[in-house]
Design goal:
The protein is α/β, with parallel strands linked by helices. 43% of the residues lie in helices and 23% in strands. The protein has helices spanning 11-23, 34-44, 60-68, 84-92, 105-126, 157-167, 176-184, 192-206, and strands at residues 3-7, 27-31, 48-52, 75-79, 97-100, 131-134, 137-140, 145-148, 151-152, 174-175, 214-219, 223-228. The termini are far apart.
């Protein structure tokens, strides 16, 4: 049976999410603090993780960072804080989705199904054409690595998926809604600012190394594309 890790110091929340998880066919693992969450993750290697941000001992951001250092398992952050900065921080450290309390448990399960579908699609893609190379760029979706001119660029999981999506379709323009659907899924309740902030952070990282043969180009009023440049 697939395991789902539910980490929250509110017993009412873990109880209801456990109940709905069982209805979805999961075996819930419940943690009341960040340290317990890490211990359960290391012991059971769950298929998906639900993390409250404000937890004792280790907060959800730190738990997510530690999970991302060793695994690409889907992580959904759950918190009462809904400011854009908090959402961006969560996505930047590698979370796959972000839910703000109060929430519907059915919505949480829909998000779980969505991230698992995207993970399955990514795994299917990576078994065939798992490496993209353009000029001095190399993206390896099996290893979730990106190199420019032989230099490894430290990117989050979502940033690598963004580069993969754009570079897989050179010179194709993606609208912001296209990218939201492709990278966060149809069940993601976000807006175009999420894409703009994400692309801005991605550019800041990749532009530290010269890449004269290609760029991520903004198509004003539309979206973005992976632009192959004439040398």
């Amino acid at each position: 049976m697939q395991h789902i890790l539910i980490a929250d110091d509110n017993r009412d929340i873990t109880d209801i999410l456990s109940t709905y998880s069982k209805m979805e066919g999961f075996e819930p693992l419940v943690a009341a603090d960040g340290e317990e969450a890490i211990n359960l993750f290391n012991k059971y290697n769950p298929e998906v993780v639900l993390l409250d941000v404000m937890m004792p001992k280790e907060d959800g951001y730190e738990v997510c960072r530690r999970i991302r250092s060793k695994s690409n398992v889907p992580v959904i952050l759950i918190t009462a804080r809904g400011e854009d900065f908090d959402k961006i921080m969560g996505l930047d450290i590698g979370a796959d989705d972000y839910i703000v309390k109060p929430f519907s448990p059915r919505e949480v399960m829909a998000r779980v199904r969505a991230v698992l579908r995207r993970m399955t699609l990514t795994e299917k893609e990576s078994t065939s054409d798992n490496v993209i190379r353009f000029s001095n760029l190399e993206i390896n979706l099996d290893e979730y690595t990106l190199h420019i001119g032989g230099k490894k660029i430290a990117l989050t999981k979502k940033e690598i998926e963004t580069m993969w999506t754009l570079a897989s379709n050179p010179n194709k323009v993606f609208t912001r809604d296209n990218l939201l659907d492709s990278l966060w899924g149809f069940d993601y309740y976000g807006d175009s600012r999420t894409v703009d902030s994400h692309i801005k952070r991605l550019r800041a990282k990749i532009d530290k190394v010269e890449h004269p043969g290609w760029s991520i180009k903004t198509i004003w009023g539309v979206g973005y594309k992976f632009d192959l440049l004439d040398n």
